[in-house]
Amino acid sequence: MTENQHSTTNASPGRLAWRRFRRHRPAMVALVLLSLLCAAALLAPVISPYPFEQQDLDLGATAPSSQHWLGTDDLGRDMLSRLLHGGRISLAVGVCATLASLCIGVVYGAISGYAGGRTDNVMMRLVDILYALPFTVFVIILMVVFKRNLLLLFIAIGAVEWLTMARIVRGQVLALKEQTFIRAARALGYSHGRILMRHIIPNVIGPIIVYTTLTVPRVILLESFLSFLGLGVQPPMSSWGLL
């Protein structure tokens, strides 16, 4: 056996996945662009040419120029600065709301699939009922009734995006819980919580990661829609939807 074959055999699944990812050029290009976008948003206070709330009413709306690369809005605010600062809000909403939906969906789906029987049936019927509700209207009502703040925005969006995640996790758990290694864990007297956390959920990480990457852009679009309606980020703060 050659040295390369030996290292491949002994490599962990994570390392093997990273090696395959590095060989995929479009994926690496996308990773670099995404990293640059996130870095620009995080460093917005440092690299922004102007304060995002600074107004120049005499300047007004202007075309791109050497002083203002993306021009200015009707209030004379630099669009590049507002774009960079808006990225911080939009990305924060995407990440935080996705994490909230991830936690709810994984826990709910794992419990439903592992419990099985009547418990699983009741929990999934509840998911079906929630699917029928117009959640965009629900989020709008929350933002109107309660104070419009970022924390509520994170919670409201995260609370409506967990249903599909729960179904995905539940299906994976149903397939895994009858496997030999799970039966062996039960025979050894492991608790249900330990079986779920140590043996089942780690084997569901792949589908969870894939769906999480699809949830982030959808959450950002929902935040953009709410901000466009005036129910998301409030001026003088900025987000991509508000822009």
List keywords for this structure.
69% helix, mainly alpha, MetI-like fold, 243 residues, single chain
Uncertain ranges: none
Largest sheet: none
Mean pLDDT: 82
**For this structure, what is the CATH class of the domain at 86-229?**
Mainly Alpha
Q: What is the 3D form? A: elongated
| Strand composition percent | under 5%
Compute the number of helices. 12
- The CATH topology of the domain at 86-229 turns out to be MetI-like fold
Fraction of helical residues: 55-70%
Please report the total strand number as a whole number: 0
CATH level 4 superfamily of the domain at 86-229: MetI-like
Going by helix content, strand content and strand pairing, the class is mainly alpha
Helix-strand topology string? HHHHHHHHHHHH
Radius of gyration: 23 Å
Instruction: Give the CA-CA distance, first to last residue.
Output: 59 Å
CATH architecture of the domain at 86-229: Orthogonal Bundle
Characterize the structure shown.
- This protein is 69% helix and 0% strand.
- It is mainly alpha-helical and 243 residues long.
- It has a domain at 86-229: MetI-like (MetI-like fold).
- The chain is elongated, with a radius of gyration of 23 Å.
- The mean pLDDT is 82.
